[in-house]
Design brief:
Layout lengths: L9 H20 L4 H20 L3 H8 L7 H8 L1 E5 L12 E8 L2 E8 L5 H6 L7 H16 L4 E7 L6 H5 L2 H12 L6 E10 H5 L6 E5 L3 E3 L3 H8 L6 H8 L3 H7 L4 E3 L10 H19 L4 H13 L9
Parallel strand pairs: 3-4, 4-5, 5-6, 5-7, 6-8
Antiparallel strand pairs: 1-2, 2-3
Helix pairs in contact: 1-2, 3-11, 4-13, 6-8, 10-11
Amino acid sequence: MPPFTLPFEKPVVELEEKLRELRKFSEGHDIDVSAEIHKIEEKIRATRRKIYEDLTPWQQVQIARHPQRPYTRDYIATVMRDFVELHGDRVHADDQAVVGGFATIGAHRVMVIGTQKGRDTKSNLQCNFGCAYPEGYRKALRLMKLAAKFNVPVVTLIDTPGAYPGIQSEERHIAEAIAVNLREMFTFPVPMVVCVIGEGGSGGALGIGVGDRVLILQHSYYSVISPEGCAAILWKDRAYADRAAAALKLTAKDLLKLGLVDEIIPEPDGGAHADPAAAAAALAGAIGRTLDTLGKIPKAELLDARYAKFRAMGVFTEGA
């Protein structure tokens, strides 16, 4: 896939191009310019670090949507062993927007379930651009029930703009499928870890988003609506998406402050797409630590705490 550059990444790209030209000149003329190369490499690292330390909420959304960001299958291939994919909801079809099966993360055998996007037009059409149909959520529920039956922890990876909103979804009862998942995920007596790895859009994300711990990668977002959708409603113009992103408090830092997520997983300088292997290692480490902790909690306490965790969200008091 050809490189994709976000507008605010251009200073880094320009420096990288200058570095390539200098190396080419050095090789072509047999001249030692290692000192100059070292200076440019340091400047690239410093520039990238500065850019990624001062990102706006809208820029965070753009990174979460980066087409070269690792997806669910990438993480499964990189840090999970012995993956056995399971297909179909046993009712209608096998939704390619939801991937699931048994896998091993570190010392833990788990049921991993995640939303999946495509890398090109063909694969995006196959998985419907990461927007699951009702059968995708019913497949996820079937796999969670299977995990509970065999006393295996559940790990979900969220990366979706939202559930598919078209007529096919309505015909097959998308709202009912998500609602049933929400209800049932509170009842499974096994550790459940939710990880937002890219986009966390609306009920489509929440349909596999109830768990004992909610983790989020540093440059991911989790929101009740997309910034463009919010802007279209509030300002009647999608061009105000940057303003909507700031108002929605959808960044990892905002979510942690609001108590909607439990841990932010740091990403490499430049985002997960800059170093997918490092991002995968950080994700696997966080999941492993979380499963170690949850495995020590009695099942009854686990269920009570899970219920209380989500009931506390959105609670407020009115003053005079």
